[in-house]
């Protein structure tokens, strides 16, 4: 039986609260009541600054729809304004990074009466604007308008979204969105007595699909010997990572390299820490996302339409179920 322990749960879900509200058709507040405007960079005259040092206030947007606007009113002679959207998991200034696709068109004297807007479609909890003015002072401000789900429904809907994701994960044997797991093995593949690793003694199959191997997400392998000494293996030297796209990734031995020969600790001696799943809800296949909606609907309405929704969910997921390899 596979021995895996969840280390870090996903920080995002497949659905925003408003998406589920729209799907269930239960949103009851008016359009005006659903919009919350926030000032990011106060409107006014802003002097010339070096670099993007005119930083707006961070606004929480996770699970909500958000529109970012820059509202210019007057550029000084020859002046320009550059503005971009930044994002972060925490509202700490040093942790903000540029959101890809979040740069506004440069504002010049010729365009200083045009309001620009962008919808934020990232997956971080906070966003803000960062601006710079060159040549001369400029009058402008930025604001962020957030559309949020009705507060009285939020808790139940949030639970339904999370539980619905877990149902889809169990059905497909996948981890849908970025999450970190600890995978424990009792021995190296070369000494396996049965199972798929018997056929591939130079590699270890990693569960859940969509294995990540980027900066900060490469699998980490450690093992403990019989003396209790823990050794961390070196990626690209002691082992290679084979991500295999949406399928199960693998840890592979390089040519001429063998698994460690030390006598192993008797209990869970080998640990592979890995991150898997799609990096954002926007990357989820359409049918998986639809299945998450139907699963959340089934849970929210306590199974009133279970006989209809269950086959629909299974049909949507039939092409995404990973083979049972563990």
In percent, how helical is the residue content? 10-25%
In DSSP terms (H or I, runs of 4 or more residues), the helix count works out at 5
Strand order of the largest sheet: 1-11-17-13-14
Q: Which topology of the domain at 30-147 does CATH recognise?
A: Jelly Rolls
Strand content: 25-35%
Main beta sheet: 5 strands, antiparallel
For the terminal residues, how far apart are their CA atoms?
7 Å
For the record, the CATH architecture of the domain at 30-147 stands as: Sandwich
Q: Could you name the CATH class of the domain at 30-147?
A: Mainly Beta
H-E order: EHHEEEEEEEEEHEEEEEEEHH
- Specify the oligomeric state: single chain
| Poorly predicted sequence stretches spanning 5 or more consecutive residues | 192-198
Total strands: 17
- Average pLDDT score: 91
Structural class of the secondary structure composition?
Answer: alpha+beta
Shape: flat
Radius of gyration over all CA atoms, rounded:
25 Å
């Amino acid at each position: 039986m596979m021995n895996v322990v969840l280390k870090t749960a996903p920080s995002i879900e497949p659905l925003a609260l408003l998406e589920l509200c729209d799907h269930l058709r239960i949103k009851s507040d008016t359009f005006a009541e659903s919009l919350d405007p926030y000032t990011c960079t106060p409107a006014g005259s802003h002097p010339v600054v070096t670099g993007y040092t005119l930083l707006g206030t961070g606004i929480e947007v996770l699970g909500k729809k958000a529109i970012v606007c820059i509202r210019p009113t007057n550029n000084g002679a020859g002046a320009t304004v550059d503005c971009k959207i930044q994002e972060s998991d925490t509202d700490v200034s040093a942790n903000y990074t540029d959101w890809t696709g979040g740069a506004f068109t440069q504002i010049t004297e010729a365009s200083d009466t045009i309001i620009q807007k962008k919808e934020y479609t990232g997956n971080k909890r906070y966003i803000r604007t960062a601006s710079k003015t060159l040549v001369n002072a400029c009058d402008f401000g930025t604001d962020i308008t957030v559309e949020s789900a009705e507060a009285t429904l939020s808790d139940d809907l949030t639970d339904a979204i999370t539980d619905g994701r877990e149902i889809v994960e169990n059905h497909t044997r996948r981890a849908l969105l970025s999450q970190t797991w600890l995978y424990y093995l009792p021995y190296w593949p070369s000494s396996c007595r049965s199972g798929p690793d018997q056929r591939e003694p130079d590699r270890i199959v990693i569960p859940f699909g969509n294995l990540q191997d980027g900066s900060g997400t490469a699998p980490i392998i450690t093992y403990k010997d019989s003396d209790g000494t823990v050794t961390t293996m070196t990626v690209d030297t002691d082992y290679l990572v084979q991500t295999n796209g949406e399928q199960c990734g693998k840890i592979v031995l390089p040519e001429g390299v063998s698994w460690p020969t030390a006598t192993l600790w008797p209990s869970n001696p080998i640990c592979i820490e890995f991150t898997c799943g799609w990096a954002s809800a926007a990357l989820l296949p359409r049918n998986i996302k639809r299945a998450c909606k139907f699963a959340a609907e089934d849970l929210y309405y306590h199974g009133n339409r279970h006989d209809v929704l269950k086959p629909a969910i299974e049909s949507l997921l039939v092409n995404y179920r990973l083979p049972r390899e563990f």
